Amino acid sequence: MEQLKIEKTKTSPMVDFNAESGHLELSGRSIPEDSFSFYNPLLEWLREYAEQAKEKTHFKIYLEYFNTSASKYILEILKVVKKIADTTLTIEWCYDEGDDEMMETGEDYEDIIGLEFVYSEIEE
Amino acid sequence: MAKRQQKRNIYHREKDYLLRSQAYIESDDEKSSESLLEELKSITGNYEELLDQTVLITRISDRLQKKLDQTNDKLSVLNDQLNDKNIELQNTIDDLVKAKVGRKATTIVFIFALVLFVISEAFVEPYIESYANNIYLSLSIKAVIAMSIKPLEMLVEGNLLKTARRKRLEAISEHS
Question: Which domain holds residue A82?
């Protein structure tokens, strides 16, 4: 399975999904004009990965800001990722130091998904 | 149109679910209780997903709105501070321009007074001595020259200030 790597821009986050290492990362700002076009390939990749997931999967999410449509897709992504929870899955929710709102957003996702997140406060 | 299409794409899966359920209800096929139960389970599952999304999106939007309000408040305070600083800066610039113009006007008037003094000593004084030979007349002419220096300086300074202000206005309008 090929690695999915997308460089970050002013409006879209950096994506680094590595099926070999089981390290998945999504970081940056997510306010794309067309959320569907951006997130659909990610969802397709993850659905494929979920069927052949590594024993250990580490999903790091470090978003500084995202819009409403992106929040919907992040929920969908997490629901797909939840399917690989029978392997050892870690979801690391990172947020900037003092950004309590982003931490609380992680807790909202955690409640809805029903998986425990690991929270990391990143010093600026 | 493209943006509307994009918004539709975001909810394309939910739209598909809805269309499927509508088609099921509208179909003339006989519906067994098992089939109805399956459909109900499917609709409930989709409803649960939509409810999850709604709850999440509402919470995130509220949080973002709060953050936006706080940022607006901070911006408003910063804007007020910036305006105060701008007025302060404007006053300082005005003072500096006045000082610069004042120095320039003094120099011009000083040169003018020097020229008048030379003219008075070289031409007016010998003329008075040879024709009128009146010391009071000579002193009066010199006093008039001396007294005209201050109003002259004010006049020159006023004109220079007007020119400086006009130039600054032109520079501002060019920038904007």
Answer: 4-122
